[in-house]
Amino acid sequence: MATGAVSVGRSPGRLTGLNTRHHRLALNIYLLIVVAHWAEHLAQAVQVYVLGWPLPQARGVLGLPFPWLVTSEWMHYGYALLMLAGLIILRPGFTGRSRTWWNISLGIQVWHHLEHLLLLVQALAGANLLGRPAPTSLIQLLVPRMELHLFYNALVFAPMVVAMILHRRPRPAERALMRCNCAAAPA
User: Alpha helix (H) ranges present in 19-95?
Assistant: First the structure.
């Protein structure tokens, strides 16, 4: 090899590291972020359905001291994009059944992301879908926003958790294909 030439494949990049030696840590951090977001949606649902708060006052945990968070389409879109990026970036570390479940979560998040993109575009353009008073997603035409996003997050979260459990407990053939140390020791 000539002096100064770069050997491809010898020094794994950041993405490779996230799906090999750092996959478990990356998944744990990602899961922490997802659970924190879930907690916000659940807190808002409790505020509405258990505590009886009107929806404008039910802002989750962070929305109470920072009310602008709840109404910021940029914040909601940013989280949807972060979720999508995490599902894409961490996908190569999965094999077999866990990859199938991770792909299901990714597919649902693609749709969820597109819905948030539609909301953001409406907020930026100042023109809402069908003349609605606020930015409105497609499925939101049928289901109220709070319930819809609680449902979307559940739809993305459930297969993601199944994928993580299967990833930690792979079958022998799946374990042989894994490049990370996420799997529990074989019994």
Answer: 23-49, 68-71, 73-89
Radius of gyration in angstroms for the set of CA atoms belonging to the chain, rounded to a whole number: 20
Query: What's the angle, vertex CA 159, arms to CA 29 and CA 22, rounded to 5?
Result: 30
Determine what percent of the chain is predicted with pLDDT higher than 70.
Answer: 93
pTM above 0.85, yes or no: yes
The string of pLDDT tens digits covering residues 78-104 is 999 999 999 999 999 999 999 999 999
Tally Cβ neighbours within 10 Å of residue 101.
Answer: 21
- The backbone region for 8, taken as left when phi is positive above 0, alpha when psi lies in -120 to 50, beta otherwise, is beta
CA neighbor of 108 nearest in space, from 34, 178, 45, 166: 34
Residue 9 pLDDT exceeds 80: no
Q: How far apart are CA 115 and CA 103, in angstroms?
A: 19
Domain ranges in the chain? 14-177
φ, ψ at 50 (rounded to 5°): -100, -45
CA distance 131 to 133: 7
Q: Rounded to whole angstroms, how far apart are CA atoms 87 and 92? A: 10
